[in-house]
């Protein structure tokens, strides 16, 4: 039986992406098609998304969708079905998906994504003529109201099951209780088993409460969020629904992330031709104004935030350079961390290079040219950069948490001897722990056979979407047969 799924998200690569959410949502339709699941993706009508469906006729009109008119348009995303909520009052804005060019969140994000959730519920439940779906799959807080609207205010009587995926529980969409009157929900929805959250409104909480199943993006993270130090206030709800929580590791798209075919590389290669990485190392050095050197080159591709452990890395850069390493960093985030890394580059010209911002092609070259990638996250639901590193022979040096713990095999003596180690893990995100992990990487890099073994083992691992797609398809079928 073919299953029809409406995937509801605020991002999808290549149309809109601020992080791993966009990569995952963009890859899901192809991953699930192989398992007899047809996915239609619903996106907000940001300017870049609207450009992709230019000239499309309206399939449905909402004269008043939580305060503004909206239309439904259709298009394609990677050859798969795409629906776009065209609501200029909400989404026709310069800046990012969630805020202006200065990084300030839009004041009406609650209304923008409530409208998005309501539209998703209308479409999935059959209230929009011409559409019928077996299941709604919502991603993160921006889509969290969709399962809540299905439960409390469906516009059609047909029951549609829903899945809520947590990509990062730290982002929850919490708002003052005063917005409830504008959400077009019945009074009974403002309750502990509804959208109410510590006296206010919680979009992610609403989705977790209403959905038939909850998924997170790694098994370890599924266990971590049961605890107060990782659950961010939602651990009680998640423990109460633990039987419906599933950890499914994200995959990566080999059509996009493949060193044998990647056009962003100076030279392509595979695990049988690792010397080909040398040309990419030279290109990466040039891109970051680093001194050419055959010593270990570390890279970072990350948001510069506390969650990502970037404060600890900033304190450890001097030790990295003193040990013989170099660093190429690409990212943006907290202003004080951006300043700290710029200062590190000034202290170590030719040894530390920093690019503030994001560049998709450059991120590919970094994976293909750097020797190791540093990911000292305090928590990491899944992480994709370590998966890219594994695929490209860029050895991950990671904190032992969430998906990092699930996907990287630590280079202890036994794993090295068995040639199954793929990277380096460390506990406790502290200067001492990170400095030790970096020193271990530098030590292993000085043993070419062992380092090449780490690279080849990582490149041989299968982190494509095939296994993850099968798990999602199995979960969908279990829900529909319950």
Can you say what the CATH homologous superfamily of the largest domain is? Glycogen Phosphorylase B
Low-confidence stretches: none
Distance between the termini: 15 Å
DSSP summary, beta strand count: 18
Number of domains: 2
Which range does the strand content fall in? 15-25%
Q: Name the shape in a single word.
A: globular
Q: Quick check: average pLDDT?
A: 96
SS content category: alpha/beta
Largest sheet: 9 strands, mixed
Query: What is the CATH architecture term of the largest domain?
Result: 3-Layer(aba) Sandwich
Pathway: Glycan biosynthesis; glycogen biosynthesis
Protein name: Glycogen synthase
Enzyme class: transferase
Family: Belongs to the glycosyltransferase 1 family. Bacterial/plant glycogen synthase subfamily.
Question: Can you describe this structure?
Answer:
The chain is 38% helix and 19% strand. It is of the alpha/beta class. The chain has 2 domains: 3-251 and 465-481, 3-Layer(aba) Sandwich (Rossmann fold), CATH 3.40.50.2000; 274-460, Rossmann fold. The radius of gyration is 23 Å and the shape is globular. The model has no long low-confidence stretch (mean pLDDT 96).
Structural descriptors:
38% helix; 19% strand; 18 strands; 482 residues; 6-stranded parallel beta sheet; globular; 2 domains; Rossmann fold; alpha/beta
Task: Please give the structural blueprint.
Elements: E1 3-8, H1 20-33, E2 37-44, H2 47-52, E3 60-62, E4 70-77, E5 80-86, H3 88-91, H4 109-125, E6 135-139, H5 145-152, E7 161-166, E8 174-175, E9 196-197, E10 200-202, H6 203-210, E11 213-216, H7 219-224, H8 228-231, H9 235-240, E12 245-247, H10 277-287, E13 297-304, H11 310-322, E14 326-333, H12 335-347, E15 352-356, H13 360-369, E16 372-375, H14 385-392, E17 395-399, H15 402-407, H16 413-417, E18 424-426, H17 431-445, H18 448-460, H19 465-481
Parallel strand pairs: 1-2, 1-6, 2-5, 6-7, 7-11, 11-12, 13-14, 13-16, 14-15, 16-17, 17-18
Antiparallel strand pairs: 3-4, 4-5, 8-10, 9-10
Enzyme class: transferase
Binding site for ADP-alpha-D-glucose: 17
InterPro entries: Glyco_trans_1, GS/SS, Starch_synth_cat_dom
């Amino acid at each position: 039986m073919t299953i029809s799924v409406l995937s509801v998200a605020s991002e999808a690569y290549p149309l809109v992406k601020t992080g791993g959410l966009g990569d995952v949502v963009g890859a899901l339709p192809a991953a699930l098609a192989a398992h007899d699941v047809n996915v239609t993706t619903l996106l907000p009508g940001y300017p870049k998304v609207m450009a992709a469906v230019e000239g499309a006729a309206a399939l449905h009109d909402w004269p008043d969708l939580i305060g503004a008119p909206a239309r439904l348009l259709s298009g394609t995303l990677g050859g798969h079905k795409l629906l776009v909520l065209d609501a200029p009052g909400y989404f026709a804005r310069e800046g990012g998906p969630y805020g202006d060019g200065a990084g300030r969140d839009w004041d009406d994000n609650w209304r923008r994504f409530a409208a998005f959730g309501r539209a998703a519920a209308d479409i999935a439940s059959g209230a929009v003529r011409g559409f019928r779906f077996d299941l709604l799959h919502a991603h993160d807080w921006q889509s969290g109201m969709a399962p809540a609207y299905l439960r409390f205010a469906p516009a059609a009587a047909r029951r549609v099951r829903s899945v809520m995926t947590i990509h990062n529980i730290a982002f929850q969409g919490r708002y003052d209780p005063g917005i409830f009157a504008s959400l077009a929900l019945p009074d009974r929805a403002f309750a502990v088993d509804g959208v109410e959250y510590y006296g206010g409104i919680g979009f992610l909480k609403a989705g977790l409460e209403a959905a038939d199943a909850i998924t997170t993006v790694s098994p370890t993270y599924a266990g971590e969020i049961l605890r107060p130090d990782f659950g961010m206030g939602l651990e009680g709800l998640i423990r109460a629904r633990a039987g419906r929580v599933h950890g499914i590791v994200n995959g990566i798209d080999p059509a996009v992330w493949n060193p044998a075919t990647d056009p962003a590389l100076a030279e392509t290669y595979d695990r049988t031709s690792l010397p080909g990485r040398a040309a990419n190392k030279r290109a990466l050095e040039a891109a970051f104004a680093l001194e050419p050197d055959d010593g270990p080159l570390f890279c970072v591709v990350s948001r510069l935030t506390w969650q990502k452990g970037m404060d600890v890395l900033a304190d450890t850069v001097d030790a990295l350079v003193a040990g013989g390493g170099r660093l190429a960093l690409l990212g943006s985030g907290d202003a004080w961390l951006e300043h700290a890394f710029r200062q590190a580059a000034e202290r170590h010209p030719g040894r530390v290079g920093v690019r503030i911002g994001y560049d998709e092609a450059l991120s590919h070259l970094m994976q293909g040219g750097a020797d190791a990638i540093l990911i000292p996250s305090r928590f990491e639901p899944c992480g994709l950069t370590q998966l890219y590193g594994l695929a490209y022979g860029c050895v991950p040096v990671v904190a032992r948490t969430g998906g990092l713990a699930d996907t990287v095999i630590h280079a202890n003596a036994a794993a090295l001897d068995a040639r199954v180690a793929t990277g380096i893990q460390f506990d406790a995100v502290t200067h001492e722990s990170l400095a030790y992990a970096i020193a271990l990487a530098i030590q292993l890099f000085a043993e070419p056979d062992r380092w090449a073994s780490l690279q080849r083992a990582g490149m041989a691992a299968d982190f494509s979407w095939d296994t993850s797609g099968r798990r999602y398809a199995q979960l969908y079928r279990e829900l529909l047969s319950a």
